[in-house]
Specification:
single chain, alpha+beta, OB fold (Dihydrolipoamide Acetyltransferase, E2P), 2 domains, six-stranded mixed β-sheet, three-stranded antiparallel β-sheet, 6 helices, about 25% strand, elongated
Length: about 220
């Protein structure tokens, strides 16, 4: 089948080849790029980290040879900016470490590509972490009246009068809810952005025992 794939990790393989770890709408695959280190190889230019390619893929083979490939986008503007590249590398590390269910990628592939196009890559990373909670079964609930904040342990907003710890204050909780449901890039004050990063880092640590890298 012909499908799109995002190269999220690259590893040297033997003398002249590379292993390309890719995301597709069908799941994760490992591609053997035979001879792609040689600049004369037809796939030399596309066998690179963070390239979006189209290729001929056999759906039921987790490891296969790169074939029928062409470059769609290379996200050069990210690669040219050290801070942006570092931030997106944190995002792809989460993909590598946390996403083990191919069904998640069926729903998230297009979103991941959209996030790479965000102007602010830190907001892209934050948005990804917040939205991924739903797919990981760590759904956040905002369905209460008179809210005053959010509680990490319950994964729910806290309303006035409840005897629950407030881990995220009301203003930041409002932005959390917007990001959770919206597909658009949000503009955040630096203070709110930092609060949300600290919150989501604690959320993953509590529910998954996973430590997120924060810039």
């Amino acid at each position: 089948m012909i499908t799109k794939a995002l190269i999220y990790k690259v590893q040297d393989y033997r003398e002249s080849s590379k292993l390309l770890f890719v995301l597709t709408p069908q799941g994760k695959y490992t591609l053997v790029g035979k001879g792609v280190k040689n600049y004369k190889n037809p796939y030399h230019h596309l066998a690179d980290y963070l390239n979006l390619i189209e290729l001929d893929l056999t759906a039921d083979k987790s490891i296969q040879t790169l074939k029928g490939a062409k470059l769609i986008a290379s996200f050069d503007e990210i690669k040219a900016n050290y801070e942006d590249l570092k931030t997106i590398s944190y995002l792809t590390k989460v993909i590598d470490d946390v996403i083990v269910n191919d069904d998640i990628l069926t729903r998230f592939f297009d979103l991941i590509i959209k996030l790479l196009e965000f102007e602010n890559k830190k907001i892209a990373y934050l948005t990804f972490l917040i939205k991924l909670t739903y797919a990981l079964g760590l759904r956040m609930s905002f369905n209460k009246p008179n809210i005053v904040g959010f509680n990490i342990k319950t994964g729910q907003v806290v309303n006035k009068g409840e005897n629950l710890k407030i881990d995220l204050q009301l203003k930041a909780t409002v932005h959390l809810q917007i990001i959770y449901y919206s597909l658009e890039e949000q503009k955040l004050e630096p203070e709110i952005q930092n609060q949300l990063f600290s919150f989501i880092k604690a959320y993953y640590n509590y529910h998954l025992d996973y430590k997120i890298k924060q810039f």
